[in-house]
């Protein structure tokens, strides 16, 4: 999804002006984080699995094998994506939260749909506690092309049992938030490679029967020194370690921890992000996401959300109330019926209208609604006819040229959604079409210029999706996401962008106006038909 934007002459001028050595300018295709899952993660997973089956310790370059319980906060990650599984690492922050790199979930080319989180083991494919999760929140400003804001939080469905082998790691706080840690020795750990292989041919490199969790002690360097190796990529929100002596993190360690010791306790200061494509033993620094720069975002992902559902039981004229603390998908009863009834009364909540979140259409949408709908629409289109939005009319080709049909690939098949073309390479949709609180999609097929969903028009695929950073599936808040297409689609009478509010329109609430909704969905509570439709609503 890139095109040549500057000539060599222009780049040389920029380099000269900023004292950047042009020879060191980085091709993002060669950066370890970009395209990671297919380029590095999957071949590595295949080799590690094979080596573990043969059996016996080492992986971080120049490091040592780690003993069970030595790094109890270390998580191993297996990321399921379209081509298989990729390898990453993470850090256990809470009994139900694991911090990792965003590129382990979406690397700019490939979208994972599930993590297997391995805790309390020095092996990746056997032993320890193993839990799966598709509830992953990437930083809202994660940019795979520039490797910026490379952090993501994995929410586990329930708390894991803590022990000598599984423990949480402390985050910086107080005066530690102002430290830059330069000059200190830090420990990086992970399940990745132990040596380099031939460039662009990673399979088997640094993988042996000695396939245990490894670690290495590395000196933290200043960002100014690090920029000499990565002049276009290093930001204040990065932290780097020296690669002197051929000691460094390597492919497969992505997302894992960089740790210093404070008060005899490990303190997390970095999340493994990227290194030089020339290799792990060439002496180049390794770059990490600086934890202190993301502490507010991290704490927001850790904080519980209190949800109260109110229902009225007519037969007993009684209020049934359920209050939960929502930590990802984990819920437990938090308040009594009596206490919640008082809350309902005090806040003037209309009990009859109270909503059970499990029944909301957005929550669990892909499996509950999206997939059955896709199956029925496909069948109906094969038979053919007309009608879909409830009480609406069939739409003619070109009547709504901004309308996009979406087919979301997820673990159980495909789900149906809609979207709006806002630029020739941008489609706005609902966040729940990508992650619905239970299911994670890994690819959209975007259909433009067609009144049918499974045939005709322009059809492009994309896994480059950015959800609103505060999307909350349980409360259905901030339910928006942007799909980035790899290239501009051709605009015509049948495919056109729609205008967005601007100026004084930003202050309007549009109440009392008639609006048109369009889409490929149901026409009634029980019926699916096969043609794109629209309806005017008040």
UniProtKB/TrEMBL annotation:
Q: Which Pfam families match?
A: Trypsin
- The secretion signal range is 1-17
The UniProt record lists the Peptidase S1 domain at 60-303, 389-538
Q: Which SMART domains match?
A: Tryp_SPc
Gene Ontology molecular function: serine-type endopeptidase activity
Query: Mind listing the GO biological process terms from this record?
Result: proteolysis
Record's keyword annotation contains Disulfide bond: yes
Which Gene3D superfamilies does this UniProt record tie to the protein? Trypsin-like serine proteases
Q: Record's InterPro entries?
A: Peptidase_S1_PA (IPR009003), Peptidase_S1_PA_chymotrypsin (IPR043504), Peptidase_S1A (IPR001314), Trypsin_dom (IPR001254), TRYPSIN_HIS (IPR018114), TRYPSIN_SER (IPR033116)
Entry keyword Hydrolase: yes
Coiled-coil spans in chain: none
Question: Which key words are in the record?
Answer: Disulfide bond, Hydrolase, Protease, Serine protease, Signal
Q: What PANTHER family does the record point to?
A: ACROSIN-RELATED (PTHR24252), HYALIN (PTHR24252:SF7)
Q: What is this protein called?
A: Peptidase S1 domain-containing protein
Q: What is the lineage of its organism?
A: Eukaryota, Metazoa, Ecdysozoa, Arthropoda, Hexapoda
């Amino acid at each position: 999804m890139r095109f040549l934007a500057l000539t060599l002459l222009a780049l040389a001028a920029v380099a000269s002006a900023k004292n950047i050595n042009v020879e060191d300018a980085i091709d993002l295709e060669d950066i370890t984080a970009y395209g990671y899952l297919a380029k590095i993660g999957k071949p590595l997973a295949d080799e590690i699995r094979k080596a573990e089956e043969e059996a016996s310790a080492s992986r971080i370059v120049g490091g040592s094998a780690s003993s069970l319980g030595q790094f109890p906060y270390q998580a191993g990650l297996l990321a399921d994506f379209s081509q298989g599984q990729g390898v990453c690492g993470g850090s256990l922050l809470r009994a139900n939260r694991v911090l990792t790199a965003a590129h382990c979930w979406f690397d700019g080319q490939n979208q994972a749909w599930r993590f297997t989180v391995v805790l309390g083991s020095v092996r990746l494919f056997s032993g320890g506690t193993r839990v799966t999760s598709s509830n992953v929140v990437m930083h809202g400003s994660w940019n795979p092309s520039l490797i910026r804001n490379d952090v993501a939080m994995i929410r586990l469905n329930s708390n894991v049992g803590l022990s000598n082998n599984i423990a949480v790691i402390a985050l910086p706080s107080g005066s530690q938030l102002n430290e830059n840690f330069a000059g200190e020795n830090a420990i990086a750990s992970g399940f990745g490679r132990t040596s380099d292989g031939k460039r662009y041919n990673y399979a088997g490199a640094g993988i042996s029967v000695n396939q245990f969790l490894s670690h290495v002690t590395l000196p933290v360097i200043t960002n100014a020194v690090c920029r000499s190796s990565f002049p276009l990529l290093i930001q204040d929100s990065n932290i780097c370690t020296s690669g002197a002596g051929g000691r460094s993190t390597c492919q497969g360690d992505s997302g894992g921890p960089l740790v210093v010791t404070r008060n005899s306790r490990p303190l997390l200061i970095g999340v493994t992000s990227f290194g030089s494509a020339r290799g792990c033993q060439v002496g180049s620094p390794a770059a990490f996401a600086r934890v202190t720069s993301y502490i507010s975002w991290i704490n927001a992902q850790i904080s519980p959300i209190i949800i109260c559902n109110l229902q009225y039981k007519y037969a007993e004229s009684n209020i049934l109330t359920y209050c939960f603390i929502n930590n990802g998908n984990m819920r437990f009863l938090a308040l009594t019926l009596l206490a919640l009834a008082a809350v309902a009364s005090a806040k003037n909540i209309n009990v009859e209208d109270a909503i059970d979140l499990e029944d909301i259409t957005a929550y669990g949408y892909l499996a509950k609604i999206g997939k059955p709908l896709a199956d029925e629409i496909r069948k109906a289109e094969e038979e053919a006819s007309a009608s879909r939005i409830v009480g609406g009319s069939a739409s003619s080709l070109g009547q709504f040229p901004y309308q996009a049909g979406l087919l979301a690939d997820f673990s159980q098949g495909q789900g149906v959604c809609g979207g709006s073309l806002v630029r020739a390479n941008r489609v706005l949709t609902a966040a729940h079409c990508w992650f619905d609180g239970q299911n994670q999609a890994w690819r959209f097929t975007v259909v433009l210029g067609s009144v049918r969903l499974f045939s005709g028009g322009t059809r492009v695929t994309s896994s480059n999706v950015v959800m609103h950073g505060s999307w909350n599936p349980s409360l259905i808040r901030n339910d928006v996401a942007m799909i980035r297409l790899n290239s501009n689609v051709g605009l015509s009478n049948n495919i056109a962008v729609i205008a967005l509010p601007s100026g004084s329109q930003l202050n309007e609430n549009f109440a009392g106006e008639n609006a048109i909704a369009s889409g490929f969905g149901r026409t009634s509570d029980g019926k699916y038909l096969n043609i794109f439709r629209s309806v005017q609503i008040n």
